[in-house]
Specification:
The complex is a heterodimer. Chain A is of the alpha+beta class. Chain A has 17 helices and four strands. The relative contact order of chain A is 0.13. By secondary structure, chain B is of the alpha/beta class. Chains A and B meet through α2, α13 and α14 of A and α3 and α4 of B.
Chain lengths: ~400, ~375
């Protein structure tokens, strides 16, 4: 995954050289044309123009997009069955990939010879330089269903002339001799998606309940406000533990976790609801809303045509910032053993293996899953930042 | 308020920008407001007990004839905006009647009509807002803003709306090419004209203008007022013109109602009210209108004291604590709403005995700022 991130950064860091005259700065190039463009630009165009100027956010958007591409094609990117353990390859360090063979581009790895060091009883691996195993793109490997419905066995890379599962360990292997890269691909899939439903649900609750409180006010507002205060006071970790214990025994680990995120979302909508309520309260009395009412517009038109676009941008930014929170909480809870547990795979589960100092000292590559966590969280935060800055093109 | 106020022909001399009043009036009463009241309840404490009322509008009665401009003038907080919003039913009045003569000749009471019945009526009474910035949705194009009343009232064809918006923009002197621009590309005066175009989109009979020029630059004020006058002549509009400044009103109104603490203090034809005000408050407001003659400078005597609190108005006449002519009777007895000469109504015990200074109205100078 770390390599994936590297790939992204390069193209985005060099922005298109011949950019059209910055439309947000009229008068610099051709005042009249630029001004005309700003005058007729819609909200989304203005947002896009402003967002484009936020270099860091643009790079982050690229990174996030790449991660989610990785989520979709996790099976394709993984080259080894994530559950295939190989006793002869436990705690194998990351393998070096040689790109050139006799001055010709032909990536290969050397074969691995593993033996037990009889004084330390540690497994040591040496490269068998007599055996060159060439890495081939689009190689065949274990069977899977692409996008969940196209049965195939093609993978991004594979080895020529030797089983990939036992010979290719780009990021090393774990205690059971499973390939870390492939497991990371599947973990990314879980970590980046399992909270999405929860986030969507809390978004929905937040907007609807906050909207009702703000638009109708009065009794509805009082009830919703008190409810928010009660929910605010519930401590989340004990609740999480209680829920984890209360889930039906026969449910799978991922199912249980999913159910918990959904339940947590039922109390997670409160912050957004408050913001939405505040926006509604202040916007409801704007003159242009009154004007629409006087023109005969009904409440639905007023909410969706006049009010919603004014805080839609805010909701987008709020969501972008809620996603990293959900990812980090998955990782943290799984690391503590409260969230996902093996055999499920997630970033937190992978990091669980690096829980003791001995592992970290002897096989530091097990800490690699922390890198994508950091990258994706940072990217989401910068993206949210950029979106929030761009969200209000009129500075209202 | 039982008889229609029909001004004598000599009362209003024809003015260059405005058509003669007689030509505009049809003699029909378009709006008849009777004993309008709007009390806001004051809640206190956790249990939200009612601890009092703000009498924002307290027993206001007036009539507006078709084609006429009635100005509603008063200081901030006197209830003029509340009155205008009640008439449009943007807020629900506490009691009273607002009789509106619809296009079909029926008279409906806007104060009590159901929301469902109100909707078709909305197109006949429209509003021009004070703040040209907050009254236009920043996320909509001019086309969508002016076209919205059309859209929600059944003009579904986009082509038809574009044509109509084009026509409206020409009417308010905006270039139709700017139709696809967003409000942020326009100046305050232009924005206000967008607001006027929106108000006119549905061919309303009554236009309530809530201080339409007080947020504008002085140079733009006159231009906007002239546009309003011109639109009245060409479209036969009736205006309820809310202002906090008699100087603005001088230019545009046929009759003027002066409000003080939720009540109308004086209501008369413009000429009569400006030349010989009968209520001391009107006289004080007139004295505060800036005069172009520098020799008159220094003669202004600002009103002492503050506007009375509408939640706890003074006894007797609401104006007595600030009135230079107040006598003992004014402190105890509430003055009645009486007609002292045809069409001239006053709420003052001493209206008949006092001779108060007025100002000339024949000049058509640009209205002064605030």
């Amino acid at each position: 995954m770390a390599t994936a991130a590297n790939i992204v950064v390069t193209p985005v860091e060099t922005p298109p050289p011949a950019a059209p005259p910055a439309p947000t700065a009229p008068g610099l190039v051709d005042g009249r044309v630029a001004e005309e463009r700003v005058s007729v630009a819609s909200q989304w165009q203005l947002m896009w123009w402003r967002f484009r100027k936020h270099r860091l956010a643009m790079v982050s958007a690229g990174i996030v997009a790449l991660f989610y591409l990785g989520v979709i094609f996790a099976d394709f990117l993984a080259y080894a069955d994530p559950y295939a353990s190989e006793g002869q390859r436990t705690l194998l360090p990351p393998q070096a990939i040689h790109l050139f063979d006799d001055g010709r581009f032909a990536p290969f790895v050397y074969g691995i010879k593993g033996e037990r060091d009889l004084t330390t009883f540690k497994r040591v691996y040496v490269e068998d330089t007599s055996r060159k195993l060439y890495v081939r793109p689009f190689a065949t490997g274990f069977d899977y269903k692409l996008l969940g419905f196209i049965p195939t066995n093609m993978h991004l890379i594979g080895l020529d002339g030797a089983p990939t599962e036992t010979n290719l360990f780009l990021l090393g292997g774990d205690l059971q001799g499973r390939d870390l890269w492939s497991r990371l691909m599947y973990s990314t899939q879980t970590s980046l998606t399992i909270g999405l439903v929860g986030v969507t649900l809390s978004l929905l609750f937040g907007v609807v309940l906050g909207g009702i409180a703000g638009y109708y006010g009065g009794f509805a507002d009082t009830v919703i406000q008190r409810l928010i205060e009660v929910l605010f006071s519930i401590p989340s970790i004990p609740l999480w533990m209680g829920l984890a214990a209360a889930m039906p025994r026969d449910w799978g680990i991922v199912q249980v976790y999913f159910a918990i995120t959904v339940i947590i979302s039922l109390i997670g909508w409160t912050t957004l609801a408050r913001v939405v309520r505040g926006r509604f309260l202040s916007l409801r009395d704007e003159d242009f809303v009154k004007a629409a009412e006087l023109a005969g517009a009904g409440p639905w038109r007023i909410i969706f045509v006049h009010l919603a676009p004014l805080f839609l941008s805010h909701i987008i930014a709020a969501t972008t910032l809620a996603l990293p929170a959900m990812i980090i909480s998955e990782t943290a809870l799984s690391f503590l053993g409260l969230g996902l547990r093996p055999p499920a795979m997630s970033w937190g589960v992978l990091l669980q293996q690096a829980q003791n100092v001995q592992t970290v000292a002897l096989s530091p590559w097990l800490m690699i899953p922390a890198i994508p966590v950091t990258i994706v969280i940072l990217a989401f935060n910068f993206l949210g930042d950029g979106l929030r800055d761009a969200a209000d093109p009129y500075g209202v | 308020m039982s008889t229609i106020v029909t001004p004598p022909p000599t009362a209003v001399p024809p003015q260059p920008p405005a058509a003669p009043l007689r030509e505009r009036l049809t003699g029909q009463i378009l709006l008849d407001v009777k004993d309008l009241k709007k009390y806001f309840v004051i809640h206190r404490g956790f249990l939200r007990r009612t601890t009092g009322y703000v009498r924002a509008v307290d027993d206001v009665s007036f009539q507006i004839q078709e084609g006429e401009t009635l100005a509603l003038v008063g200081e901030t907080g006197c209830g003029k905006t509340t009155t205008s919003r009640c008439i449009l039913r943007a807020i629900d009045p506490t009691s009273g009647q607002i009789l509106f003569r619809t296009e079909s000749g029926k008279t409906v009471d806007v104060a009590t009509i159901s929301k469902r019945e109100l909707r078709p009526l909305r197109r006949q009474m429209q509003m021009i807002f004070q703040d040209p910035y907050s009254s236009l949705n920043p996320r909509m194009t001019v086309l969508d803003i002016i076209g919205e009343p059309l859209l929600v009232n059944g003009v579904k064809s986009r082509r038809e709306r574009i044509d109509r918006v084009e026509e409206l923009m020409r009417l308010v002197r905006l270039r139709p090419e700017y139709m696809r621009r967003f409000p942020h590309a326009f100046s305050g005066g232009q924005r206000q004209r967008i607001g006027i175009a929106r108000a006119l989109a549905l061919h309303p009979k009554l236009v309530v203008a809530d201080e339409p020029v007080s947020a504008l630059d002085v140079s733009v004020q006159a231009q906007t007022l002239n546009l309003l006058l011109e639109l009245q002549n060409t479209l036969g509009l009736t205006y309820l013109f809310v202002a906090h400044n008699l100087g603005v009103v001088k230019h545009i109104s046929d009759r003027v109602a002066v409000m003080y603490v939720g009540q109308i203090a004086e209501l008369a034809e413009r000429e009569a009210l400006f030349r010989s005000p009968k209520h001391p408050y009107t006289a004080a407001l007139l004295a505060s209108v800036p005069k172009p003659d520098p020799r008159l400078r220094g003669q202004r005597k600002p009103l002492p004291g503050e506007v009375a609190n509408p939640a706890a108005p003074p006894t007797g006449c609401y104006f007595h604590p600030r009135c230079a002519f107040a006598v003992e009777r004014c402190k105890v007895e509430r003055p009645a709403w009486e007609q002292i000469s045809p069409g001239h109504w006053v709420r003052c015990h001493r209206a008949r005995e006092l001779t108060l200074p007025g100002i000339e109205t024949s000049s058509t100078v640009a209205p002064a700022a605030n």
